[in-house]
Amino acid sequence: MTYLAIRHLHMTFALLSIGLFATRGLMALCSDRWRGSRVLRIAPHIIDTCLLASAITLLVLAGFNPLDHAWLMAKIIALLLYIYLGRQALRAGLARGVRLPWLIAALACAGYILGVAFTRSATWGLA
């Protein structure tokens, strides 16, 4: 596959991952019954694995070293924060008032990651 094709796959997996997370978060705000859905428990792992594999493939094909590119390092750090915030947001048994701030923070972090990806700047080109 070409770099461009893998990049488009990566973008697709990223949007699927964030969209599915937002859906699961909204469902968690309403009820914990969604946890019984096999698809909603397994699909995120498959999508996120494909997202990670496509990211690593892009790094190798482009010859990028995250330590040499501040925007890549910012994406990696923000990804780790997004994973933590998302995990907190989707914990079972949380009250809506506790879950909502975690969910908003995780989605804001995902938005930051998308902004960094499109601008290739840790500051979105504002600094």
What structural class do helix, strand and pairing data support? mainly alpha
- Low-pLDDT parts are none
Helix content: over 70%
Number of H- or I-type helical stretches = 4
- Percent of residues in beta strands: under 5%
- Helix and strand pattern: HHHH
Return the domain count: 1
* Tally of strands: 0
The separation of the N and C termini measures 36 Å
Mean pLDDT: 94
Largest sheet: none
Based on CA atoms alone, the radius of gyration comes out at 16 Å
Question: How would you describe this structure to a colleague?
Answer:
Helix content is 76%, strand content 0%. It has helices spanning 3-30, 38-62, 70-89, 96-119. The longest helix has 28 residues, at 3-30. The chain has one domain (3-119). It starts with a helix and ends in an 8-residue tail after the last helix. The protein is mostly helical.
Name the features.
mainly alpha; 76% helix; 4 helices; 127 residues; single chain
Give the topology, please:
Blueprint: H1 3-30, H2 38-62, H3 70-89, H4 96-119
In short:
The chain is 76% helix and 0% strand. It is mainly alpha-helical and 127 residues long.
